[in-house]
Amino acid sequence: MGDLVGWILLGLVAGAIARKVIPGEEKGGCLLTIVLGIIGAVVGGWIGRNVGFLPPDPNPGDWLPSLGSVVTATVGAMIVLLLWKWLRK
């Protein structure tokens, strides 16, 4: 249960930061921000592990994300948000 809470919190934070950084108006609410942030966290985590920025095996007992996880999740959320905007055009 703690992991789920951690993913939701990380998704909310990453999605909110990505929305503030990427210009333009989005009409989606908090739920869309969380979903895009969680997808971005998965994308960013995959990228972060493959380039060596994140450890290959995170500690599954930690539900509070690390700073590296927040950074990679935010970058991933920005990528997902840009793709979302591009696909909606």
Name some characteristics of this structure.
membrane; transmembrane helix; Transgly_assoc; 89 residues; globular
How would you summarize this macromolecular structure in one to three sentences?
With 89 residues, the protein is an all-alpha fold.
Residues in β-strands, percent: under 5%
Number of helices: 3
What is the 3D form? globular
What is the multimeric organization of the chains shown?
single chain
What is the number of beta strands?
A: 0
InterPro entries: Transgly_assoc
Keywords: Cell membrane, Membrane, Transmembrane, Transmembrane helix
Family: Belongs to the UPF0410 family.
Organism: Luteolibacter flavescens
Commentary on this structure:
The protein is mainly alpha-helical and 89 residues long. It has one domain. α1 packs across α3. The longest helix has 22 residues. The N and C termini lie far apart (37 Å). Its main location: membrane.
Note the topology.
Blueprint: H1 2-21, H2 30-50, H3 67-88
Helix pairs in contact: 1-2, 1-3, 2-3
